[in-house]
Amino acid sequence: MNFIAKFCATVLLAASASGATAGVIYEAQGNLYDIETTSGLLSSLRSTIESQAWFANEDLARTLANEVGSSLGVLNVAGMYGPMFATSIYDGVGADFTTGWVYYPNRAGLPDDDRAQSMNFSYSNTWTFAVGSLVGPAPAAVPEPPHLVLVGLAAMLFARRLKRR
Asked: pLDDT value at position 89?
């Protein structure tokens, strides 16, 4: 079995053995994340929100909001924003809210992969939040076919050189 086939079989076996495939897999900052959504009040979802890998990590939250885009739906504020990747919770006097990043598909003048914006969501309404888990590091990129030919040719030449010794 060649290297690529072995690699693919290993990845598929590892994915099926983990049993965690509820969400959709996204890549950000060299890692893979299994992400889905949950809706509810801030007060009932607080511990879930605070346990996310992107909580307190503005860069990761923004990157994931752009990566996910509208693929999980635009479920917040009457269908204007994607799920919130919450990064902090403010406990004020009668004004609790969460801050994070949402994807705004109608943000004119920006490329599709850079439309995330920071938002505050109040405690008194039902919101849709991104939830998920770190799957692990993203696999190294497999060289494209023209590069594979060069790698294969170099390996054959190296093997031939070793046989002559």
From this structure: 92
Determine the residue type at 89.
I
Three-state secondary structure along 32-60? EEEEEEEEECHHHHHHHHHCCCCCCCHHH
Neighbours of 74 (CB within 10 A): 20
Tell me what pLDDT residue 121 has.
Answer: 85
List of E strands, 29-151? 31-40, 85-90, 97-103, 116-122, 127-137
The low-confidence residues of the chain, meaning pLDDT below 50, are: 1, 5-6, 8-21
Residues 96, 115: contact at Cβ < 8 Å? no
Q: How many Cβ atoms are within 10 Å of 33's Cβ, its own excluded?
A: 25
Closest CA to 130 of 20, 21, 34: 34
